[in-house]
Amino acid sequence: MYKRYFTAGGMLLLFFCAELQAQREPDKIFQKNIKTVQLNPYGDQTAYPVIRLNSSDLLQLDFDDMDGDIKNYYYNIELRNADWSAVQMGYFDYAKGYPNQRISTYRRSAQVLTRYTHYQLTFPGRDIMPTKPGNYVVKVFLDGDTSRLAFTRRFLVTDAGIAVSAQVQQPFGQEFFRSHQKIQFTVNAGRLNVSYPQQQIKVVILQNNRWDNCIQNIKPSIVRNNVYEYNTEKDGIMPAMREWRWLDLTSFRLLSDRVRRQENTNTAYDLYVVPDLSRNTQRYIYYKDYNGIYAALTNENVNPYWNADYATIHFTYKTPNNGPYAKDLYLTGQMTNYGTDDSAKMRWNPQQSVYETTLQLKQGYYDYAYALADGKSDPPKFITDETEGNIWETENQYTILVYYRELGGRYDQLMNVTVINSMMNRPGQF
After folding, report:
1. Do residue 265 and residue 283 come from a single domain?
2. Are the CB atoms for 363 and 304 separated by under 8 Å?
3. Distance between CA 407 and CA 409 in Å, rounded?
4. Which of 204, 252, 314, 379 could form a disulfide with 272 if both were Cys (CB 3.0 to 4.6 A apart)?
5. What span, in angstroms and rounded, lies between the C-alpha atoms of 305 and 290?
6. Would you say 106 and 120 are in contact if contact means Cβ atoms under 8 Å apart?
7. What phi and psi, each to the nearest 5 degrees, are found at residue 342?
8. Do 322 and 280 form a contact (C-beta atoms < 8 A)?
9. What is the residue range of 328's domain?
10. pTM for this structure?
């Protein structure tokens, strides 16, 4: 969270720090009463929030206020560059409509132990509409005051101005042959005016929609007119990890085999997950996962948005040598904002010789993993080599984002979003 400064200009500094953090971390929750923030294409909880420019595509934003009362939440959108830095443009240069709009759709929870208010927003529309392709951040704040940020979330607006062909391969190098995956692709800029491709064309590669370990600042290995080939053993490879761990919380009555025990009262649910172990030496087993995300679901015939309950979930991790790691251990996945939430850091319990943490989670299906933090970078980089291991056969989804900046342009235009799966074109696979 941002710091408080008790000075004459304290409120100004508080606002500045919140804005600075929102720029560095476009996916961030600033208020502790906000839970289960989801931004997806309308009606699809498993897809990344991408819409086409000047189309009828819609995004759906859902979140819960655990105070259980009714508040006046507002939202606006902000255009960013390819690296999520601020653009030197005014709001009306990239959007239509009034910049601050109230979220008017909400409903209090019903038939559950936990009291909360669920808010829902569908956009863009006549009130707010992006007019430029690129990276965007939706900001939600209280009472029309942009300094009172509740949370921020990324979304993408793309324009079909560049063609991309891509595939996932097994690396040739002995060091990465069994543990990594190589993304090879070709960018065809067509009729775009590209005089300096090293500066005008930018590429970002996401693994399972994660930004914390994305590949960026890579350069083409071959340039032919307006066609650029990216095919190197150095820049285009990523650790494959393995299928994500899973936790089925679609019911708090019929518990899945991943829940060891429960301690329920008349006012709350407490569920204890089966202790997890390191998987880096285990045999690889393929199973269908959500690639690190979660979905608000119930196996009862109720609405998962305002009829689903919350529970305190207790996670435990046992190390191979029953001693703590030299680095901090984190619980990562979309449910902890990929390790950036305060509750994501695991605490070492010397009496039990285990790591522990607790999360307040809504009924649903969750993917997660454990990772060690590399303290050399800020924000820290999360490494799963020791806790999960890397197997090249792992099913992963890769998203290739291609940006173009005009000569003298003021921002990076997102001209293509290509999604490929590591299982494509493998013998016996789809």
Report:
1. yes
2. yes
3. 5
4. 314
5. 19
6. yes
7. -60, -35
8. no
9. 245-383
10. 0.91
